[in-house]
Amino acid sequence: MTTRCWVDSAAIIDHLDEMHGRARAMTPAEGADRRAVLRVVALMMGACDKLLAAAYEQRTP
Fold this sequence. Notes:
The chain is mostly helical. The chain has two helices and no strands. It has helices at residues 9-20, 31-59. It is flat, with a radius of gyration of 15 Å. The termini are far apart.
């Protein structure tokens, strides 16, 4: 078995959806609904990155 490190949120979601099948998928398979979910994921990851950067900046002497 090959071990992989998944670091992109969309790739992680796709991998989990493939592992568990469409019946238990977290995202729609295609179309506007899928793009809307991935857009929210991207926005939230961007917000997390900014919050983390702000926290680090506050701790810098």
